[in-house]
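User:
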Amino acid sequence: MSWMRRLDEGGGFIRPTAPLNRFPDFVAHLVQRLKATCPALGKKKIAAVLARAGLHLGVSVPRPGPVRARAPNESWHVDLTAVPFARLLRWPFAWWVAVAVDHASRLVVGFAVLVRRPSSTETASFLGRAIRRTGASPRTVITDHGREFTGAFRRHCRRLGIRQRLGRVGQHGSIAIVERFIRSMKSECTRRILMPFRLAAMQTEFGSYATWFNEHRPHEALGGRTPLEVYTRAPPANERPRFEPRPLWPTRARCAAPNAPMKGPAGARLVLVVRGLASKRHLPVIQIRRAV
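Assistant: Predicted structure:
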């Protein structure tokens, strides 16, 4: 009892010089540098991208929750959005973008850049290109009630044996998956670049963003995995062996979620490497390496 009281009062004979769970100062420097390099990343997104690179910090990434589509290509969301230069939503003041997103994996399975709002025939053609590019046809396509998804689009779906499901009029979130992608696309891409006036240049910009979104951007709803990892059932990067910068951390102790085994000895000194996909700074690809 006397010994335990002395330990509680901080006067024990065996006392670590620093808390076991305290990260070295250079870890805070890495996080600050990443935030300065990529100011659009929040604390949860920073923790998620660092976990994929092998450094697990305190802000945990939630495990994937239940979704209505249990496997890729069961349901696709298709929608349109205008990306304006000015207040007028027509060329030459805006681009129109069509996107198709897989529900289960959030993978961008198709996109198209248009100079005007498409007709139902053009939207049907876009869906056909996405199916040929992916090599798979969805069972269900979820759209809103726009005129682009009537007429030729409905006939095209029936011809392919695809069920078209419509979102509820006036109900927010009825097509939330694709709406969330469009919001991310605008905040992470189109509002951070000078909008090109050439169609080929705009297609390149959206192609680069779609590649980054599919392959490098972790998703909270997917437990920190990327859409491509879920779609292809690849082992998630955030569950690979991790670096451990805390020198006194026990080898078998759990880390920030998702728990991963330790790679090498504890007390690793690390450096942060940030490069832009296709040399675009707003599309960061994060790597962590041991310091030489």
